[in-house]
User: Fold this.
Amino acid sequence: MTNMETAEQLKEIVRQKYGEIALQDKETNASSCCGAGGCSTEVYNIMSDDYSHIEGYAPDADLGLGCGLPTQFAKIETGDTVIDLGSGAGNDCFVARAETGESGKVIGIDFTPAMLEKARANADRLGFNNVEFRQGDIEHIPVSANAADVVVSNCVLNLVPNKDAVFSEIFRVLKPGGHFSISDVVLAGELPDALRRDAEMYAGCVAGAIQKDEYLRLIAKNGFKNVTVQKDKPIVIPADILSNYMSVEQIKAFGSKETGIFSITVYAEKPAKASCACGSDCC
Assistant:
């Protein structure tokens, strides 16, 4: 099996799983591994932060699938064009719309038809005519070059096999001088192979994650400047989940600072006079 075949299989797993998640309520999603299924006897939201106090929050669009609040750090200004990668039911788009205002534009990108249907219905119900949702793969963003002032994404890039391609595409669609703020899941230390291979955990935001250092290296490789980690927090996964993959000794080590799963929010800028890093595909 080639790497390309494996990547396409993983994408299909995610597409199918998030199609199911779109039909679940928030409580079901929030009590599981980023919506992956009822995999813990401890019922609480493992990943996401609380949006309910933020202007633009739409409860019907919040499926409890995020791992941060990227819009809170995204420096969105009135009139900006904002792209949300992996827009789901539209929650981050609607929060971004509250900041960019009527004069701005928000474009949500998702490859799951059920999510897009839900997001469009939410936008129609809210009467937002400057928020649109496009079907597409974020490795090939269906937006023209130099179109966006800001790109945001919430717990999505870790699900994509080719993260290098995504950062290259973000660089392409941003205007010179534009920037992104992305919340995502990264690793520190090594996870057991069984945990990384498990399809449920892949769709649940864990096994698709890469090392934090590698994640930040890919951002710089694609030509971005002023790369800044705006937030960094450990994700506490209940022992009854980890016990499916790890020994007691491994679980103890997993809780240390050297080994674990972390939610980070990362900011970076496309230079005003864009120049690509040597060997990148960002031009």
